[in-house]
């Protein structure tokens, strides 16, 4: 038997706790069905990804300006639709780099000159655990948290 569905407020709190948790690993899609694993950080209401500028993921995200991010196991899912806010070399963003390193287990500023930060602005966030939470899964719509 499944637990009663969480309230919207509890789902938002749980989602925000996950976003600031250590080593925020995610699956990221930028161009349809392809998924790549990336470690993210949560900084000033943005998801921050770090990757080499030459990767297909970085190129696609810069071109399309859109990403879909999946967090968690199948029975505690957070799905985030996001738009690219901006991107910049890891060496040009000390406060972003410090925040990324504080949350994660590696420092992309040591990975080489072609590494960049991609800042993603969430536009829709959904979270659910079991089928009974699917009807109320949307927590954010058009970049605004629902109340």
Automatic annotation (TrEMBL):
Name of the protein: Pyridoxamine 5'-phosphate oxidase
Species, as recorded: Actinoplanes derwentensis
